[in-house]
């Protein structure tokens, strides 16, 4: 009985609320780490584009600040379909092409902690952003400010139900973003860097700290339509989490790394795949992520 009580307390402290299995409050956030890779900074010309992502994330460890296991019998498995609609206009601002995009994830989430479990499926939090993109020879770059809106399903953990597979975060995030690609001489050197500011989760009186997130890729064209390379991501939380307005630390970090492939036989569509293993993890789950990305021009 004593062991069961201890496990319940641990579960309450680490009960998860996630759409795609990433960090801050309870070890999660809304940054889709690893989603972007090859040509990340090379935004397309004016037109409407549909980007479809599939992600599987699996983890069986929750690690503390020393990188040691902090939660007993922890497992999470998330399958997500993410739709991004991009509209690049013919308008110019500061010499850059003006565009807009919206992102809507759909997730199937299963979690278990200390012998207790929950699952859920449905829509996650909506993302919307204006953007600007520039091109100069082999150099391409873009910038945007994302707004993450708490539209996904959310229930605060309770003693009766300490493990909740939430699809939304229940707080807003403002996220400035910068992306860059060098495309020339068969090389694809790309990155996307963002910084996230989070509001408080009013249901838990918890405010996740600010964090820096970056996707990166190093690729080489082996044929005109086929690129192989290494891809990954870096996550580093720079400010403490707050609970009831008190700093409690819990700064998360992770590095993801693995192989990637990009296939574009026609100018109006391409397919990209990657697998990334997580290392150097603190205060968040440790697992692996598989991404598939399909881009189509209307």
β-strand percent reads over 45%
N/C terminus separation: 61 Å
| CATH A-level architecture | Beta Barrel
| CATH class category | Mainly Beta
CATH superfamily: Autotransporter beta-domain
Q: Indicate how many domains the architecture comprises.
A: 1
State the helical fraction.
Answer: under 10%
Q: Radius of gyration, rounded?
A: 19 Å
The chain-level structural class is mainly beta
| Low-confidence region ranges | 1-23
Overall body shape? globular
- CATH fold topology: Lipocalin
Query: What can be said about the biggest beta sheet?
Result: 12 strands, antiparallel, barrel
Enumerate how many helices there are, as a single number. Answer: 1
Q: What is the tally of beta strands?
A: 17
H/E topology pattern? HEEEEEEEEEEEEEEEEE
Mean pLDDT: 91
Strand order of the largest sheet: 1-2-3-5-6-7-8-11-12-15-16-17
Keywords: Signal
InterPro entries: FApF
Signal peptide: 1-23
Pfam families: Phenol_MetA_deg
Q: Explain this structure to me?
A:
Pfam families: Phenol_MetA_deg (PF13557). It comes from Acinetobacter sichuanensis. InterPro entries: FApF. Keywords: Signal. This is Phenol degradation protein meta. The chain is mainly beta and 298 residues long. It has one domain: Autotransporter beta-domain (Lipocalin). It has one helix and 17 strands. The strands form two sheets. It has a twelve-stranded antiparallel β-barrel with strand order 1-2-3-5-6-7-8-11-12-15-16-17. β9 and β10 form a beta hairpin. It is globular, with a radius of gyration of 19 Å. The N terminus is likely disordered.
């Amino acid at each position: 009985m004593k062991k069961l009580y201890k496990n319940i307390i641990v579960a309450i402290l680490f009960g998860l609320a996630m759409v795609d299995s990433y960090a801050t409050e309870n070890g999660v956030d809304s940054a889709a780490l690893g989603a972007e890779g090859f040509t990340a900074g090379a935004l397309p010309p004016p037109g409407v584009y549909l980007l479809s992502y599939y992600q599987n994330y699996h983890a069986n460890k929750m690690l503390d600040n020393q990188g040691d296991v902090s939660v007993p019998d922890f497992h999470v498995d998330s399958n997500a379909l993410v739709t991004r609609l991009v509209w690049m206009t013919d308008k110019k601002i500061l010499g850059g092409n003006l565009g807009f995009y919206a992102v809507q994830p759909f997730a199937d989430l299963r979690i278990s902690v200390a012998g207790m479990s929950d699952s859920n499926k449905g829509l996650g939090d909506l993302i919307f952003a204006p953007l600007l993109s520039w091109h100069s020879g082999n150099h391409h770059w873009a910038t945007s400010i994302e707004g993450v809106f708490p539209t996904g399903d959310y229930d605060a953990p309770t003693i009766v139900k300490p493990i909740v597979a939430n699809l939304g975060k229940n707080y807003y995030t403002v996220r400035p973003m910068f992306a860059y690609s060098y495309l020339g001489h068969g090389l694809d050197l790309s990155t996307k860097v963002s910084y996230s500011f989070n509001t408080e989760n009013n249901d838990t009186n918890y405010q996740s700290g600010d964090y820096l997130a970056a996707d990166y890729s190093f690729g080489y064209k082996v044929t005109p339509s086929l690129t192989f390379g290494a891809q990954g991501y870096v996550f580093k939380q720079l400010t403490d989490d707050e609970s009831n307005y008190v700093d409690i630390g819990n700064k998360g970090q992770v590095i993801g790394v693995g192989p990637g492939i990009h296939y574009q036989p026609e100018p109006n569509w391409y397919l990209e795949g990657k697998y990334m293993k997580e290392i150097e993890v603190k205060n968040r789950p440790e697992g692996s992520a598989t991404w598939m990305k399909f881009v189509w021009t209307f």
